Amino acid sequence: MKRRSTFLIVAVLVAAFMLPVSAMAENDPRDAVPAPGGTSLFLFYYRDYTGSDVYEDGETLDDNADFDLQVGIFRLAHFWDVGGNWIWSADVLQPVASMNFDSDVLFPDNSGANSSGLGDTTIATHINTPFFLDNGKFKLGQSYGLIVTLPTGDYDSEKAANIGTNYYTYRLEATPVILMSGPFVFELTGEVNFYSDNDDYTVANLKQEKDPSYQLQLHASYSFTDSFLFGISYYYLTGGETTVAGIEQDDEPDAQALRFSFGFQLTKNLQMLLQYNTEIERENGVEQNYLGTRLAYCF
Questions:
Q1: What is the model's pTM?
Q2: Residue 197: CA count within 13 A, CB half-sphere
Q3: Bridge partners of residue 193, in order along the sequence
Q4: Alpha helix (H) ranges present in the chain?
Q5: CB of 266 within 8 A of CB of 272?
Q6: Three-state DSSP class for 8?
Q7: Are 270 and 252 in contact (CB under 8 A)?
Q8: How does pLDDT run across 142-175, given as a tens digit for each residue?
Q9: In whole angstroms, what separates CA 10 from the centre of its chain?
Q10: What is the DSSP string of 131-149?
Q11: Measuring CA to CA, which of 9, 30, 145, 285 is 20 to 30 A from 188?
C-alpha cells in the first residue's frame, strides 16, 4: 500500500465516492426507453447516502466512520421525433449537496470533512433507434448517449471534501439492448468516462489526472398494474485510478451495487420512484447505501 498523508487519503477516498454528485452516473429502470416526441420532463431526485466502512486497496481503514451525503438533483429533459421513429433527447441536470464525514481514524484531531453547495452541471443528449424487432410479443431497440459534466460546482482546494470536482467528465453511453415484452422491460447499458486534469488539487495545488472509468448496468422492471412497477438494477464500476503529482494512487473504486425501485403513477402526468441502493463490494472509498426518491412530471 502506498503511503500518503491523511489529507491526501481523505481527498482521494472522498473523490472516489463523489461521482453521484458530479453527475447522474447511473440510470434508473426504463431510463433508456424514450418518451414520445414532443414530451418534456421535469424530474427531482433526492438521495441520502450513508456509510460507516472506509476502504483503501480493499483493506478496512475505519469500520466506525460516519458518512452522510444528502443530494438533490434537478433535471429537465425534452424529446424530439426526428423522423423514421428515431427519438432524440436532451437533458440538463443540476445537483446540490451537503456532506458530513467524520472518522476517528482519518480525523483524530479535528471534526472531520464537511462540505455543501452546488454540484457540477451535466448536459446530456441521447438518440434512440426505431425498434428493429417488433413481432407483437417482443420489441428490441437501442439507445446511445453523450454526457458532459462541467466543473461548475463549489470547489476549494484547501478542503479535503468538495461537492464540485474541478474537472470535465465526458461520458459515452451505449444501451445496445432495450427489450420490451408486455409489462416487462430489460435494459443493458455500458459506458466509459473520460476526465480532464485538475490542476488545483489539494492545498498543495497538485496536478490530479484520472484514468477512464467503465460501468456496466443491468435493469429489469415489471409493471404489475398501470400505476405500479418494480425494478431491480445491478451496477459495476471499475477503472478511474487517479495520479497525483505523477504518483499513481491505486484508488479505483471497483464497486458493485444493487438498487431496488418501486414506481407509482400518482396522476396521469406525475410518477414517483422510491429506491433503496446497497453496495455489495467496494475496493476504495466509503461503502454506502442510500434511500431515495424521484419525482417525474410529464408535460
A1: 0.91
A2: 11
A3: 171, 213
A4: 6-17, 19-22
A5: yes
A6: helix
A7: no
A8: 999 999 999 999 999 888 778 899 999 999 999 9
A9: 20
A10: -SEESSS-EEEEEEEEEEE
A11: 285
